[in-house]
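Narrative of activities, Objective 1.

The group set out to show that a structural description can be obtained from nothing but a protein's sequence at a throughput compatible with the screening campaign. Below is one input-output pair from the validation batch, recorded exactly as produced.
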Amino acid sequence: MIVGSHVIIYSQNETADRAFFRDVLKLPHADAGGGWLIFGLPPSEVAIHSTDGAPSHEFYLMCKDVEAFVLAMRARSLVCTPVRDRRWGLLTELTLPGGGKLGVYEPRHVRPKPARTTARRRVHKRQPPRKARKAPQAAARRKRGKH
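Output recorded for this entry:
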């Protein structure tokens, strides 16, 4: 049923934010036309949390080493917030060129296995097995009666 997810980040400078995802995060991408880049993401997960306020959505990227991520961003003159130790992981945020905040964290929580897609597989018709060709020497031995 579900084959993926599509996340939309609204930006006041989409060109700069697309360049950030392409050049800094080095995410694979496809051009949907006119420079409209759609980025591939690694396996993802969704969590549902309760709220007393208005329903909303949040988007975080996960990494294996948040301190290394912060250093890599610093090397590109990008500022991350100080890493905060949360029950569920180590969190930092950076400001995208378009002004939006992007949370990046090193998870401590259990990670689910990636969901299997339900895309249909091509069914190949099985070909009947080919008759094995006999090697010329084996055929000659058989004619002489030597196996």
